[in-house]
Each structure stands twice: as C-alpha cells, then as structure tokens.
Design brief:
Length: 306
C-alpha cells in the first residue's frame, strides 16, 4: 500500500574466510625501473696474455743537413709500416724533427739527408761525428748521394759561387751505401730498414738475404758521387738491356726524360744529376744476387711487416 515501507530482504550471514599471510621466505621486492637497478652477479675470468720477449732492436738516426726535408717526409709516409718498425725492430734515437735529442748519439744505422756545406763548420762536424758513432752510414736521397740541385743548376752548369761549397757527403766521410732518388720511395726506405735489422740481428739465412739485397746499394756508393741521365745511355741502352718500361721517365723529378720510340731520351739541359733514373732502372745496378733471391727477400720483408 502507498505509504508502507519497502520490504527488507533478510541479510546473508557473513562467511568466515581464512586469513592469507605473506610467506616469510618471499619478502616484497621493488620492481626494477632501470637496467642499472638489476644486480647481476657474474664471475669475471681473468685471461693472462702471453708475454712475448721484446725484439733485440737496432738503433736508427736521421741527420739532416742541406736539403728540402723531402726525404724525411718519405720516412714518415710509411704510416703503419713506420709504427711496425719502431715497435718491433728499431729505435729512432736521433732526428731533429722527430726526436728531442740535441747531440748525435751512438747508433747502428744513420740516414744522412742533404748535401754537406763546407762553409758550415757545424754541419761538417756533425757529419764526421755521425760517421764515427754509427756502424752503417747511408746517403739518404739524391742530395746526400750526388749533390742534386744543391750542387748543380741546369745541364751540368755549376751554381753561383756562394753555393759551390755544397758537396755530396761522400766527399767528406766514407759512405757505406746509397739510397738515391729525389726522394726515395717509402717502400725502399722500409726495405732497407728491415734488411739492416736482418743483417745485424738475423740468423745466417736472413743475413744472406740481407747481404744480397744491400750489396747493390753498397756498390752504388763505390761507384762514385756523380750521376747523370747519360748513365742510362752508357750502361743500359748501349748494352742492349733497356726493355722500354719507362720507369726512368716516371721517376725523373724534373721531367728531363721522355720516351721516344720505346726508348728513353734524356734532355741534358734539364738534367739535375740526381741519379733517380739510374737508381730506379730495373736493368742498371741490380745484380744476379738480387734476382736469384727475389722471392726469398720479398717473403722476408712481408713476414717482418705482418
């Protein structure tokens, strides 16, 4: 009926549920938000590297006299090869541009760059000191070997009187071997350094290969301190040895050699007598000791640089 209260339903009895208690062995943990919050316990194994004995290095120095520094740039152009040489085979003990040493020390191999000015007493004294303190003295580059542009002007004409005092270093001290060209290629510098190491520190077989490679360079030093494009005419072309490869024309720094009818033609007015053409000719100063041991020599160089 209107006005009556709504009928109330009887309440259900409450069920007694057992209380669930958290396990004591599983404490509540905070979820990791960052990877750095996760702690991982790992065992780090320490691997001991095998200690290799340090090679019995040779000492090399570079004496700079009157030159353009192009030969020193060639030495640095070996890049990774230079680092390999300095790490395993040689210590650079003297070089005014690269090493902070004021006086010429004792060394195994000394690379002398540039010609010697007789009017400069300091240069003469340093050259003589380098000869006395080094086992092997190398005329490094055309200026040291033949005088190059410091000695000659054009076509054999002597320079002005103020520059007549520039002479190859062989006119002041004894030279063991030449490394000519203007400048020598980086590979030649690398090969001579490796062969010098094998000659001084290698076994009997390595010393034999090094001797075969370095002997022609020593014979160049015995040949004298004069060079010209005419040497190709006398010693190569006139002897029927020229094969027309064009290496002499490609290595001439002043383009004094051109190839005509498959043979080199030397312009004597442009020749500066640097010796680059004769030194790079494969039929000039290489002897049969090099030819017969070519593969062994190259294998030794490649093995040393690996």
């Amino acid at each position: 009926m209107p006005g009556d209260r709504p009928e109330q339903k009887p309440e259900k009895p409450l069920e007694n549920k057992p209380e669930v208690k958290p396990a004591a062995s599983q404490p509540p943990t905070k979820p990791a938000v960052k990877p750095s919050d996760v702690i991982v316990n790992e065992k780090v194994e320490v691997v001991q590297k095998e200690e290799k004995p340090v090679a019995d290095k040779i000492s090399i120095g570079e004496l700079h006299l009157s030159g353009c520094t192009g030969c020193l740039v060639t030495l640095a152009d070996n890049y990774e090869g230079l680092f390999k040489l300095l790490d395993d085979y040689a210590d650079l003990v003297y070089a005014l541009t690269l090493v902070d040493v004021r006086h010429v020390p004792a060394m195994d191999v000394c690379l002398v760059e540039g010609s010697c000015c007789l009017d400069d007493k300091l240069s003469v004294e340093e050259l003589k000191e380098a000869r006395a303190k080094s086992k092997v003295l190398v005329a490094y580059g055309a200026c040291a070997a033949y005088g190059n542009i410091t000695r000659f002007c054009r076509g054999g004409q002597w320079n002005q009187p103020g520059q007549e005092a520039f002479v190859p270093i062989s006119e002041v001290v004894d030279v063991d071997l030449y490394l000519p060209s203007c400048p020598p290629c980086p590979q030649a510098v690398r090969n001579v350094a490796v062969m010098a190491y094998l000659l001084l520190r290698g076994n009997d077989e390595q010393k034999s290969l090094a001797t075969a490679y370095l002997t022609p360079l020593m014979q160049l030093a015995q040949r004298g301190d004069t060079a010209c494009g005419c040497d190709l005419m006398y010693d190569v072309i006139n002897q029927g040895l020229c094969m027309g490869c064009g290496t002499c024309a490609g290595t001439c720094p002043v383009r004094a050699i051109t190839m005509e009818y498959g043979r080199p033609n030397v312009n004597r007015d442009l020749c500066i007598k640097c010796g680059a053409c004769y030194a790079q000719c494969p039929r000039s100063w290489f002897n049969f000791d090099v030819m017969n041991n070519y593969e062994g020599i190259m294998d030794a160089i490649r093995g040393a640089m690996q």
